Amino acid sequence: MSEKEKKTVEDIPKELQSMFRNLNANAVFTPFSQTASNDDTDANEPTPDDDDRAAEVLQRIREFNLKPREIRDYLDRFVIKQTEAKKVLSVAICDHYNHVRACLESSDPVDQEFAKQNIILLGPTGVGKTYLMRCISRLIGVPFVKADATKFSETGYVGHDVDDIVRDLIKMADGNVELAKYGIVYIDEIDKIVTCQTGGVRDVSGRGVQINLLKLMEETEVSTQSQTDLVGQMEAMMEIMHRGGRGKKRTVNTRHILFIVSGAFDQLAERVKTRVKGVQIGFGQAREDERDASEFLNLAETKDFIDFGFEPEFIGRLPVRVACESLSADDLESILLQSEGNILEQYRQDFGGYAIDFAMTREAITKIAEVASEESTGARGLMTILERVFRNYKFELPSTSIKSFEVTTETVDNPEDTLREILSRNQAAQRQVLKEEVQSFSQRFKQENELDLDFDNAAIGALVNLSLETDKTMRALCDEMFRDYKFGLQLIARNTHRSQFTITGDVVDDPDAELSRWVVESFKNIKAERSTGGTETSGNVESAEAGDTSS
To answer: What secondary structure letter does DSSP report for 156?
Structure first.
């Protein structure tokens, strides 16, 4: 091969790198030029910092010694209720990672005889299913990925390939395949991929997704590069070309990845309720009728899941099954009062960004919980109600002098009325805030243009009134009224050598007209200076600034 041909081949990866960056600017990719010169160096290898973090997590897994009660106590800090779910999850997590630790400590094939305890969580929306798993992954420190089952398709061309879940887990592990092998995958909305719908139509795609998922949940090798991803294909091509045709196939084994799936399973609860009622008679049946449909999920058997539309092989890969309880108004109140990092704390942080704090009476908390319970969306109903209460507060208060307020039952019932009352009581202080904002505009104008705007009391008062009447911030109002003053005053400054201008009430009444008159006066000043040899300069400048038209 000639030197010219070699040079052409060497240039190809650079061109592909440029194409790769243009196709996906957000992709995690390290150009070859930024890696070591050794040909065996993988362009996608984690950085030293990533390796240190991964080594720390792997060491934590090797030293895993948590007890089920310890995990349960940790979850109690964040998730209210769900006693049985916490117990089941704690035991399953400990069993899984104790086995992983044993596999890491020994080279014996002990893991071949271990049935992985994948988990299925059942229960209505907003009861904490996802939050439970996030808390567990945070406690252990392993990579965690959440996905919705509805986004997957059998082929991967329409929708996502199920293998993408594992690739996302690798991304969460900062590209470290070894660490990703011990992560947790959480798939929500699993009840939406059943093969038999209510209309009796068989969903072939749903069955295909189940078959592909069960392979992941058992054990399989997943390529780190998607076969349907153009960017991934280009990346693989670049790697092969860079290695001179010696492409390195990278895969991750799913043997030690813990899979948790969840769903509301409303229709399954109704099926189980019908089955249970069919064998109940007398008072027993009456008591069952009073129970919430979701409570029957605890009675679901494997046959119920198969009749619901799951493949026997798929549901067989989920041996640990537990139903979460619905949340009552008292439970929602406990979340606001006891749960660490609850949604109320998030709103405190939001207001804290504007140095605003609020107090909430116990009666108001009870009221919010009661109203949120009527939403029938679990803990998510709390955010719905709090957003309704605080929406206008978050919009109005940051522009005022108010730094604290109290939330009462009246606030929950009529948030807009109570907000207007707070603003009315603060009207005098608000006028002072607006006055200070006028001075802030003057200072900013001077910094940007080296020109002084001296607002007199009449001008400030007029601007404050305009701000209140038009419901505009002082900054927006001044920017709009004096948007042409930068260029007009610079022209005047060149003509008169002045840099300070007084803004009066008349200027605020018609700023454009006053600016035009000042510009005309500045040109009259030049004409007068030329005709008198400069003796009238000072007088004409003062006239222009004061608005005197007698010259």
So the answer is: S
> Do 314 and 341 belong together in one domain?
no
Continuous H helices in 106-190:
129-140, 163-172, 177-180
364-401 exposure pattern, b = at least 16 Cβ within 10 A, e = fewer: bbbbbbbbbbeeebbbebbbebbeebbeebeeebebbe
Indicate the residue among 425, 441, 475 that finishes a domain: 425
**Rounded distance, CA 262 to CA 250, Å?**
30
Last residue of a domain, one of 382, 405, 425: 425
Number of domains the chain contains: 3
Which residues are within 8 A (CB) of 162 and not within 5 positions of it... i.e. 6 or more apart?
152, 156, 209, 212, 213, 216
Task: Provide the domain limits for residue 480.
Answer: 431-546
Conformational region of residue 41, where left means phi above 0, alpha means psi within -120 to 50, and beta covers everything else: beta
Classified as helix, coil or strand, 300 is coil
Judge whether 256 and 182 are in contact, CB under 8 Å.
Answer: yes
Q: What is the DSSP letter of 324?
A: P
CB 335, CB 131: distance < 8 Å: no
77 and 131 part of one domain: yes
CATH of the domain at 414: 1.10.8.60
| CA separation for the pair 383, 342 (Å, rounded) | 10
On whether both 97 and 185 belong to a single domain, the answer is: yes
- Do 224 and 338 belong to one domain? no
Tally the residues of the chain. Answer: 551
Q: What is the CA radius of gyration of the chain?
A: 34
Q: Does 72 reside within a domain?
A: yes
Ordered per-residue pLDDT tens for the chain, 551 residues: 455 444 444 444 444 444 444 434 333 333 323 333 333 334 445 555 666 777 888 888 888 999 999 999 999 999 999 999 999 999 999 999 998 888 888 766 555 567 788 999 999 888 999 899 899 989 988 889 998 888 877 655 555 778 888 888 988 888 888 888 899 999 998 988 886 544 444 454 677 888 888 888 888 888 887 765 566 666 666 766 666 555 455 788 888 899 999 998 888 888 888 888 765 555 555 554 556 666 788 888 999 999 888 889 889 889 999 999 899 999 999 999 999 988 999 999 999 999 999 999 999 999 999 999 999 898 999 999 999 999 999 999 998 889 999 999 999 999 999 999 998 888 888 888 899 999 999 999 999 999 999 999 999 999 999 998 888 889 999 999 999 999 999 999 988 888 899 999 999 999 999 999 999 988 887 777 777 765 444 433 444 444 443 33
Whether residue 284 lies inside any domain: the answer is no
